[in-house]
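Field notebook, page 294. I keep forgetting to write these up properly, so this time I am using the form the group agreed on. The chain and the ligand, guanine, are recorded exactly as supplied. Prediction of the bound pose follows.
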Amino acid sequence: MTLIIDGKQIASDIKQELAEKARILLAERGIRPGLGLLLIGDNPASQVYVRSKAKACEELGYHSVTITKSSEITEKEVLDIVQGVNHDPAIHGILVQLPLPKHISEQKVLLAIDPRKDVDGFHPMNTGRLVAGLPCFAPCTPAGIMEMILRSKIETKGKHAFVGGRSTIVGKPIANMLYQKAEGANAIVTIAHTAAHDLAFFTRQADILVAAVGVPQVITGDMVKDGVVVIDVGINRIADASAKSGSRLVGDVDYASVFLKARAITPVPGGVGPMTIAMLMHNTYRSASGEISW
Ligand code: GUN
């Protein structure tokens, strides 16, 4: 029997737990977790993401502020907004939705965010602390993967975890989290990327396989061993004449063939995707409650 890891259900459980914790934080200490969302330009996908994040805040009883600016804004103006939010005591977490317009340096803007409010976990201070195994904000998607592994009681200690992809948002942080000496981690990690000549040589050794390569259905059943645990981070839209819309979402894993060999697998959609916002809410709560010792 293959376990289908239900990210939608796990994310819903986490949000329910956080709503209760937020209620207690407000009742006992008068603190309402607050998230500042900065949306620049009119990228439709970014608008949807930011709205979903604000809606999650509302559902959990958090405070949120969405600052929306046109793509004409200057870099200096963006940096000034970030400074303002950094100093706003009602805001515990700041998220600048990416991508930014080309004339604004993402690196400069991310560096301007107070690392103690960096609930996206993109500031190099948090990257460094993550690698060092210090308390920090981990980026939300890899944090969500770790939470799914933990809650699904997947054995990780001493197991071989393969990570496909070396992005700053997923591949690098998840690889660094999986080998930490911690519960739900302590794995032996291989990270592969575009320079790998024979991807299957590595994937076939994996007890846990994290696919974050951004290529639709590239990991196929013949590339994995029996009993593998598969975490599919990919979200790719492909043409499908049989679908009403003419397309459908698939992961980086060929679900049908890998499912037959896997012990556990995350579906797309409904796997890793819903976990990202849940972990953003988790990070915002941690910032508000002051539970990270910097
Ligand atoms: N754009 C796409 N994903 C993300 C994310 O997780 N955080 C931010 N800030 N922007 C994004």
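OBSERVATIONS:
- The chain has two domains: 29-115, 138-274.
- The pocket of guanine is lined by residues 95-98, 120, 140, 276 (CB under 6 Å).
FOLLOW-UP: compare against the apo run.
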